[in-house]
Amino acid sequence: MTIGNFEYYFVPILAALKKNGKTHRRANMEDVSKAEALTPEELALTNSKGTNVFRSRVHWAQAFLAQAGAVSRPQRGYLEITDRGLKLLDENPQGFKAKKFREFPDYADAWGGKRKHSDHDEVVNEPDLDTTPQEKIESAIDELEDAVATDIVQRVRNLSPKFLEIVVLQLLQAMGYGASESSIEHVGGPGDEGVDGVIHQDALGLQRIYVQAKRYKAENTIGRPDIQKFVGALSGLGANGGVFITTSTFSNDARDYASKNLSARVVLIDGAEFGKLMVRHGIGVQKRRTYSIVDIDEDYFED
Fold first, then answer.
1. The domain containing residue 244 runs over which residues?
2. CA–CA separation, 85 and 16 (whole Å)
3. Sheet architecture: strand order including 78-81
4. What are the Restriction system protein Mrr-like N-terminal domain coordinates in residue numbering (predicted)?
């Protein structure tokens, strides 16, 4: 079983409420998850923004059913199926879309659009009902961040190799590596012994991670020989691990070698992941505007 879109859960929610009567919204979510036989992995699934997919979609489905009068809220946090909900369930056992709610004259469109009151009125802000409002926002943010990440990598490719080496060390520090700012050391240049930076994980320097950064064009794939050379350098330096970052890509053979090499733990980060990490950790970007996603505070409406 896979997680459906939020409209898919209209019927399971109503069916659980019909069976169990008045139920707390969280218990209703649990009832739905059991009826759908979702695995722990599916229930724990989150999107790129950390939002739990199942809980978010069931939450929005509950909200739409309440907007449509298919369920009522008899007390704080509780849901109860109504006569309208029973009729919807009876007439649509295989499921239905949110547009079905427009048949009800008292339905307030939760998407912020205008309902058609007469043949002379126009319906505006017609939504794509495959996704919840929150998913729409998060998808748009993902699209924007992907575009910025791609732009970052393109810009870095046009700058000096030293710039990439320093940026990579700043990124790893922002990710939490290194005991302090002085623990990050740039060593790239002639005679660098195959590494461009060193991260001292503890004050005494007993745990060290070595870094290699390659500024390559997108079409230049890094193969197994480059990784073998890096692993050899790590072995000679007595390293605890290494990070190989490039603005291009790694071949499958290179990734396979890195994953199976036992002399030192080697992590490969290609251009696409490098750009996303830069955005995620705020390196080379600035916040233009911050938006807050609001939700109902159930405790506030306690009787």
1. 160-280
2. 12
3. 23-24, 78-81, 71-72
4. 6-90
Residue closest to 25 by CA, chosen among 95, 79, 96: 79
Pairwise CA distance, residues 92 & 1, whole Å = 21
How many independent structural domains does the chain possess?
2
- Evaluate whether residue 301 is within a structural domain: no
CA 258 → CA 196, 210, 216, 221, 282, distances in Å?
A: 18, 15, 19, 15, 28
DSSP tally for the chain: helices H, then strands E: 10, 10
Instruction: CATH number of the domain at 184, please.
Output: 3.40.1350.10
Residue 126 CA to residue 263 CA, distance in Å, equals 58
How many whole angstroms separate alpha carbon 44 and alpha carbon 248?
33
- What is the DSSP code string of 128-191? -TTS-HHHHHHHHHHHHHHHHHHHHHHHHHTS-HHHHHHHHHHHHHHTT-SSSGGGEEE--STT
- pLDDT tens digits for 190-223? 555 678 888 887 766 667 888 999 999 888 999 9
Q: Give Cα separations from 164 to 174, 209, 216, 223 (angstroms).
A: 15, 17, 10, 20
Who contacts 240 (Cβ-Cβ below 8 Å, separation ≥6)?
Answer: 201, 207, 208, 209, 264, 265
In a domain, 117, yes or no: no
User: For position 10, which CATH number holds?
Assistant: 1.10.10
Other C-beta atoms lying within 10 Å of the C-beta of residue 206: 9
Same domain, 2 and 63: yes
Instruction: Let me know if residue 122 belongs to a domain.
Output: no
Interval 131-188: pLDDT, tens: 777 888 888 888 888 889 998 999 899 889 899 999 999 999 899 887 677 778 888 6
Is the pTM higher than 0.70?
no
